[in-house]
Amino acid sequence: MTATEDLTSTNQVTSAGTSEGRQELQLRKDVSEKEVLRGSGAVLRMSESEVAALAGTQSEDQTMIINMGPQHPSTHGVLRLMLELKGETVLRCKPVIGYLHTGMEKTGESLTFMQGGTNVTRMDYASPLNNELVFAMTTEKLLGIDQDIPERAVWIRMLLSELNRISSHLLFMATNGMDLGAVSMMLYGFREREEVLRFFQKVTGLRMNHNFIRPGGVAADLPAGWRDEVLGLLDTLPARLAEYEILMTGQPIWRERLQGVGVITRDEAIALSATGPILRSTGLSWDLRRDMPYLRYDKVEFDVIVGSYGDAFDRYSIRLNEIRESMRIVRQVLDAMPQGDYRIQDKKVTPPPRGRIDESMEALIHHFKIFTEGFKVPEGEAYVAIESPRGEIACYIASDGSATPYRMHVRAPSFINIQTMPHMMRGGLVADAVAVISSVDPVLGEVDR
Amino acid sequence: MSQVSGRVADDVRFVLKADYLKTITALRGEGFEMCVDLTAVDYLTHPGRNISPEVASQITLERFELVVNLLSLSQRRRVRLRVQVSESDPVIDSAFDVYPGTEAMEREVFDMFGIKFNGHPDLTRILMPEDWQGHPLRKDYAQGNIPVQFKGAAS
User: Fold this and answer.
1) Mean pLDDT, residues A48-61 taken together
2) In this structure, are strands A89-96 and A63-68 parallel, antiparallel, or unpaired?
3) DSSP3 helix / strand / coil % (chain A, rounded to 5)
4) pLDDT tens profile A270-287
5) Which strands sit side by side in the sheet containing A80-86, from one edge to the other?
6) Which CATH class is domain A104-411?
7) Shortest distance, CA A367 to any CA of chain B (angstroms)
8) What secondary structure does DSSP assign to A276-307, as a single string?
9) Fewer CB atoms inside 10 A, N or C side of chain B?
């Protein structure tokens, strides 16, 4: 008997009033939506100490609570799940997070807007450029220069953002494969991702944590020969993706492991504030790049990939096809890349060029002031959201007019998306829990911040 | 009321704490299907903040401000609510029954700011250890040189 049957079998129970109130389970139709949500939901709402107090006791209904993680290899870092099991079936679960919490939002309050990029880039370390982008865009909005960013800078941002989406989804392909036992897939995914990271290294100097997209534009112009590099990437990837399709998409074992696993409905996804591939897997076509365009996404053509069943297989194929769509955008960016400045020529936020520092005392002082004191940002608050590979990533900054944010908050998509896990796992097997964690694709650096 | 920051006007509304639940319920009916973000700001050292005079005359500014971002997928629209929460009574109704997705966000605000949410199903710390004392994102929470709070750790 699976848990799903178990949970629905309550309709054979009739309600009986006792001196202590209704003791029996109520008919499902008699239970209000609110009660279901709170009472018999999928989320195990017990604290660590409450669970610890249960140690050694035996429950009457033969359920047990076990820990998965935080050191479990399939938990993508340090996610810990408390699973309530009946046999091998997951009844309820609770994601326990915070093991990687380093107070990055607090740290952000003492870093200048110039330094802030180094902080936010470390949150979602699988797509650092998107974090930098959203932070830079929020700062620019507060400065009132969001419409003045030079065209070239905007298109460079788009190029990097899309390549980062590709590298992030390739990492997903790798980890998703590994979690489900396709170990060779892990090697392939990492191999392709490395090609993209090599390009990032050429452009930004670093493979990860670039701090390249900064308020006002980007840190440097694209290096000579960048176009050939990108074209090289675009030439190798399609064949590799076709290889993935043969390795996984068409595989009966792969389909068996993913199809119908971790199903979430559209209403659930919206109610739980899930965004990104999770929301799209339920068939809802929602992508901020198309629906609330930023940068120049309204100038490029691409399709929003949606699923139809809301299961782990949909989320896998959405990400696989999003790589293809991103490649399509990158091709258009290559054609459209304008000439010009790569950062705004606003003396307030832009440090003087290196050459000027040797010639001019003022330039030297100016350079020194910008890098030590930073620039002042007018009072106010702004919220900017963009589409990261994991969903809506947004930055909320409240400024008090000084050079550091008064409050810097990042709406981390993984942090919110993790809430869908209990609902996806409910009634499934423990082995499928691994598939669910993997298909949510959380990055714990971002969850814990 | 819309407030301009930068050149793009955001739809920002100031809501009284007593009307908070009523307002979000009404907004949900208006098509704001998703509560996309819920966070707070501690205005201890910057009590004035940036508020136009006509708004400032209508509301009492408090130490804490709850910032709720709602998103309408059907109308492609956002609205941001700013709710004042006082230091002496840091309690506000939970949005859980209207937007279940706020569960983790409210836990985070509780953990980081010590604002309590009435009617939240599981109001416990989410990022900090369960037995942690203090609320790290409050402005009077010292940064650095804090005594080690882990059990059994050398201090």
Assistant:
1) 76
2) unpaired
3) 50, 10, 35
4) 988 999 999 999 999 999
5) A63-68, A80-86, A89-96
6) mainly alpha
7) 25
8) THHHHHTT----HHHHS--TTGGGS-------
9) C
Residue A12: partners with Cβ closer than 8 Å, 6 or more residues away: none
d(CA B89, CA B115): 9
Pick from A160, A165, A259: nearest CA to A213? A160
Residues A288 and A276: their CA atoms lie apart, in Å, by 9
Nearest one of A232, A391, A421 to A319, comparing CA atoms: A391
Q: What is the pLDDT of residues A382-438, one digit of tens each?
A: 999 999 999 999 999 999 888 999 999 999 999 999 999 888 888 888 888 888 988
Q: What residues form DSSP beta bridges with A20?
A: none
* Residues ≥6 apart with Cβ < 8 Å to A10: A25, A26, A27, A28
* Cβ under 8 Å to A: B residues 39-78: 39, 41-42, 45-46, 49-50, 67, 69, 73, 76, 78
CB neighbour list of residue A134: distance below 8 Å, 6 or more residues apart: A120, A384, A385, A386, A388, A393, A394, A395, A410
Give me the residue from B7, B10, B41 closest to A146, CB to CB: B7
The reply to whether omega before A70 is within 30° of 0 (cis) is yes
Task: Give the domain ranges of chain A.
Answer: 1-40, 104-411
Nearest to A75 by CA among A414, A426, A388: A414
- The answer to whether the CB atoms of A98 and B128 lie below 8 A apart is yes
Q: Is the pLDDT of residue A163 over 90?
A: yes
User: Which of A34, A44, A409, A447 is most worth mutating to test chain B (most B CB atoms within 10 A of its CB)?
Assistant: A409
Question: What topology does CATH give the domain B2-89?
Answer: Beta Polymerase; domain 2 (3.30.460)
